[in-house]
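for ur thesis appendix - Aconitase. copy paste whatever u need, i formatted it the way the template wanted (i think)
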Amino acid sequence: MKLTQEEQEMLDGKYGEGAKIALKIQVALGDVFKAERMVPVSRTHVALSNQDADIWFAEKMVEAGAKCRVSPTVNPGFNLEYFQCITTISKKDEEQIRRTRKAYKELGATLTFDCTPYQEKNVPRFGEITAYSESSATPFINSVYGARTNRESAQSALCAAITGRTPLYGFLLDENRKGEVLVDVQAKIRNDFDYQLLGYAVPKKLKFKTPVFVNVPTNPSPAALMNLGAQLNTAGNVPMYHIVGVTPEAPTLEAAFHGEEPKKIITITQEDLEKVHEEITDPGGKIDFALFGCPHFNIDQVKQVADLVKGKQLKVKLWIMTSALTKNLATKMGLLETLQAAGGDIVDDTCMDQPCWEFLYGKKGVTDSPKCAYYTKRRNMQFVIREVDECIEACMRGEI
Ligand code: F3S
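the 3d part is after this line
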């Protein structure tokens, strides 16, 4: 790989041991993907996980004196102070979250602790070269904004934040952004929830390919696009999709395929959506809780739930996970008060795949998110997956 003088100096240690290690990793990654050079990044997002390997790497970089040149927004761990008020947090888990906070603070990260920063704090413009990790983030950056990112890991994104660079390969290059498979959606896409199922169903028929959707509505909400990307990338490692008339690089079908023919055409029917729904949901029955916000809810989604529970009483506890910024907004708008009056709550800085939810292990909840159900299987949490309004009705009855 050809390096600039500054990059070579970084690799030689002129800018400190941390930057040297980070660039060394990136050069190795670039070699693997046959990148010819590095390019500057203007934005980064690190999907920290608050788990051992993540903390090990972040602390290693702190010890090496690394500081981020391009301050990354970061994913959630869990809100220690909130959960200490409602359950018991072990000493080990408390120490883990404190170490995560300390390491990323010392690295100079922007501590959003939010998995949808692309909606409110870290929003790129068309064509910007960035490095985002997090499964819902990469497709949103590529497909909705037309900015560019590879499907980074937390560690490679942190390296990019430290060096301010990324190897030029993959989805940063024009030729790799073209659509590959035409996805003809015959199923009816009625609401944001249907995009969850669509995103989960498509990788059943294609893997590691860039889909181009036709026959879907051309006015999807931000939540719909977030859902589609999150599920596509969780179920099938798809960091970019095109919706003709929505994706900036796909004003026409021809533009989406860069003037070439699709490699394949697949059809998604109503039956496909129903089948995938049946496959991923646990069966109904008595429920103990509801959990929303995987990925983190935006303010419109918080309002939707608040409107549905207004003046009602829930039989089971309901949590919405979101960013601190959105929670603050929801508080000002009176939505938090409405939710709390019904027996719900908003929790910021928190992911559902964290030990703070241990008090729900072995229990059954409702959610609108296949991703939430997928990740929590290893934590022995069961989820019935339904549309948001059906989930709320279930919360009022205590069963579904
Ligand atoms: Fe966000 Fe955690 Fe789900 S990071 S997308 S709440 S798995």
